[in-house]
């Protein structure tokens, strides 16, 4: 079955462009166009009063959709923000400094940059566990996590596609003391998720920018009960129900409400709900997406030229993109980009991402373009 027709506005805007950076910016489905306009219309209709319906009706509905996808019941433990960086900083504000952090060398730039700045300021002491060798990663990570205040790791590593095996068991093996944050951005809507075994223990951050195909401004976090009850970094959304009350102690909402921030543009969340509703209506589950992408990946590996060392090796589970280690990764990216073929690279790692909107013909064209370029090198 093909799904390209659901993304006509984005794909038809540049029909000559071949987009294979699906681990980054996906095309948005057509339904998000109407959703984006609907935020404007609801704002015009309600003005200040729009927030009542936003929190009373829209947010529970969106939480419910996410709750079903993540096996979190009604999703009441979910907080929203424009980006995951804001949510992670809010969790950090619940911890006494300096914070002992255990993380990996394979975390995305936003977290890596913030952690380095915390180190410079004396707010954190950080231990980074190397992702490779992949086979021993879980044991090495557990070995260094025992005395941490904060444990942070990705479910799928952005620079290789390595999927941390049996993540629930890994988290369950940690001591009870650390606060745990799982970066799920490269897993959400790319693979099936069951957060129920982790819900009591770990924060989980993800959003709409990547595989949920809803664009920017739509991040969320599952907030485990009893963890970080009173974030120091807080905004008026976190006390929305008590705005008219003035008490000596700052009050917080229940469940995920306590980790809300302040005023944000709601259009991203409108797009996210529209995209999730569209997936549900068309039977496009994370299982369907994962299967579709896996078939395209295998087709590419069977047909395509040798591009370098495949990361992680084939015996490991990988995410929805292929990573090849090669010294000229940036040059290959630029050559393809000049031919209107969009991929990306990180250092010596060349990445090709696959999405539900791709069809086998797209893979054939990508292979042809790569063969042409490789023959010229």
What can you tell me about this protein's structure?
By secondary structure, the chain is of the alpha/beta class. The protein folds into two domains: 120 residues, Aspartate Aminotransferase, domain 1 (Alpha-Beta Complex); 249 residues, 3-Layer(aba) Sandwich (Aspartate Aminotransferase, domain 2), CATH 3.40.640. It is 37% helix and 15% strand. The protein has a seven-stranded mixed beta sheet, with helices on both faces. The relative contact order is 0.16.
Question: Nutshell version of this structure?
Answer:
Helix content is 37%, strand content 15%. It has helices at residues 8-13, 31-46, 50-70, 84-92, 109-121, 137-144, 167-172, 267-281, 286-303, 329-338, 360-376; strands at 18-19, 78-81, 99-104, 124-129, 150-154, 179-183, 202-207, 219-222, 309-311, 321-325, 341-342, 344-346, 349-353.
- Determine the structural class based on helices, strands and strand pairing: alpha/beta
The helix content is 25-40%
Low-pLDDT residue spans: none
H-E order: HEHHEHEHEHEHEEEHHEEHEEEH
Report the CATH C-level class of the largest domain: Alpha Beta
Q: Which CATH architecture of the largest domain is right?
A: 3-Layer(aba) Sandwich
Cα-atom Rg, whole angstroms? 21 Å
Instruction: State the strand order across the main sheet.
Output: 2-8-7-6-5-3-4
CATH topology of the largest domain: Aspartate Aminotransferase, domain 2
> How many separate domains?
2
Euclidean distance between termini CA atoms: 37 Å
Q: What is the percentage of strand-forming residues?
A: 5-15%
Could you state the CATH homologous superfamily of the largest domain? Type I PLP-dependent aspartate aminotransferase-like (Major domain)
- Count every beta strand, where a strand is a DSSP E run of 2 or more residues: 13
Major pleated sheet: 7 strands, mixed
Mean pLDDT across every amino acid position: 94
- Tell the overall outline: globular
Number of separate helices: 11
